[in-house]
Design a protein that fits this description.
This protein is α+β, with helices and mostly antiparallel strands and 246 residues long. The protein contains three helices and 13 strands, in the order αβαββββββββββββα.
Length: 246
């Protein structure tokens, strides 16, 4: 006779709730004010701290685009590739507004004379208007460094598109000195998004740089510690029931 396994209803509930749980939406922001158009910040501890908090919620397999592989002057659209949890994530950056055509700039030392510089390497993406990033698979995490944002009254917004839209005000300082550095990121496992749209209230006037863009899918987001512990307890209970009722 073949034995039957009986699983109590309570255990079913435990197992269901043992699935990884995540916060609904988590945003990250840190900003270091600039020292003027001709001076590169020697460090940006607030922005770097926000990025560290963002990175801590992702696995080590997440990749970052630093624009070092593109020649100076390369304009949009740009095709990018990020590492996903189960394969590559393709992305295309394109301009969606304004007359200024974003392009890859190279500034090895100092600034470009207008307060902009890379946060790693020599290259960054220079723009002043609306852009869009389209992904070939839904993602859950996106973060970037922004350089020299807001010194000419430009407020940047980020909109995630996933059938519906969620718009976020980056919150950069307005009319500050040039050369500021900020980090902004979002992790949203409940509303996976297929596009990111950047807005600028001073399009074609307030220019700024983007660098070190990081993308992650839902499989690269680390569950909260409480959820992970609940998962372990649930799996342990499953093992006990199988031994008890088989």
């Amino acid at each position: 006779m073949t034995g039957k396994t009986f699983v109590p209803g309570a255990l079913v509930l435990i197992t269901l709730f043992a699935a990884p749980a995540f916060a609904d939406i988590t945003t990250f922001f840190g900003e270091d004010l600039g020292l003027g158009e001709w001076t590169r910040l020697p460090a940006w501890s607030n922005a770097a701290g926000a990025r560290a908090d963002f990175d801590a919620m992702l696995t080590g397999g997440v990749s970052t685009e630093d624009f070092e592989s593109y020649a100076r002057g390369t304009s949009l659209p740009l095709d990018l590739t990020f590492t996903g949890g189960y394969g590559d994530i393709g992305a295309t950056i394109s301009r969606t507004g304004g007359t200024f055509d974003p392009y890859v700039e190279e500034v090895p030392t100092g600034t470009n004379g207008y307060g902009r510089f890379p946060t790693s390497g020599d290259n960054y993406l220079e723009t002043s208007n609306a852009m869009r990033i389209d992904f070939n698979t839904a993602v859950a995490a996106f973060g970037f460094y922004g350089i020299d944002i807001g010194d000419f009254d430009g407020q940047v917004t980020v909109t995630t598109v996933n059938g519906g839209t969620h718009t976020y005000n980056v919150g950069n300082t307005m009319n500050g000195a040039g050369g500021s550095v900020l980090f902004w990121g979002i992790i949203d496992t409940d509303h996976l998004f297929t596009s990111i749209e950047f807005g600028n209230t001073a399009s074609d006037v307030d220019c700024f740089g983007f660098d070190d863009m990081t993308v992650g899918d839902q499989y690269q987001v680390i569950p909260a510690p409480g959820a992970a512990l609940l998962g372990v307890l649930g799996l342990s209970m499953v093992g006990w029931v199988k031994r008890r009722f088989s």
